[in-house]
Design brief:
2 helices, alpha+beta, five-stranded mixed β-sheet, 171 residues, 9 strands
Length: 171
């Protein structure tokens, strides 16, 4: 094989192998990117509240911080964000979670209440450190405040009759 034929053979071999090499590099890069995105922020949050609550009644807000990754998340804390119309009934807006082991979850709770009828969206943000980097996640839940339900039946009617008789007596 002369020198020019050898160069052409090597060139054709390289050109035919290039798509296969490029595809495997691109495929590996894409998979590495997906894994890196999961590794960067494995934190997720779910928030639970009752669907409906009577006005002025205290209700519980639960949040679950979920570490979907393998590595431990450290110095984690959770913060609740209440919309106008809702207040924290007791406790602190920010709660220390500490650490969340890989593939584990931790729960935190708050107690809130509201004085006005309506639908309210409650948000919880959880953040922590993963290998020296800050990771965070947010979750929301909706609660509806309804009018206070008055008891029905005989005991309430007796009280109501007594009150009406008392009002008549005052006149």
């Amino acid at each position: 094989m002369n020198d020019s034929k050898a160069k052409i053979f090597i060139f054709l071999l390289a050109v035919s192998l290039l798509p296969a090499i490029s595809f495997s590099i691109a495929q590996a890069s894409f998979l590495d990117l997906i894994q890196a995105l999961v590794a960067i922020n494995p934190l997720a949050v779910t928030v639970q509240t009752p669907l409906e609550v009577e006005v002025n009644k205290v209700f519980k807000v639960d949040a679950t911080a979920i570490n979907k990754g393998e590595a431990k998340i450290e110095n984690a804390n959770a913060q609740i964000f209440l919309p106008a119309g809702l207040v924290l009934a007791r406790g602190n807006l920010i709660q220390d979670i500490g650490f969340i082991q890989g593939k584990r979850e931790k729960k935190v709770s708050w107690f809130a209440q509201g004085a006005n009828i309506g639908e309210y969206i409650i948000s919880v943000s959880v953040s922590g450190e993963l290998r020296g980097e800050i990771v965070s996640a947010d979750g929301t839940a909706t609660v509806t405040l309804k009018e206070k339900v008055l008891p029905a039946g005989r005991p309430f009617n007796v009280f109501q009759r007594f009150f009406e008789a008392f009002q008549q007596w005052l006149k």
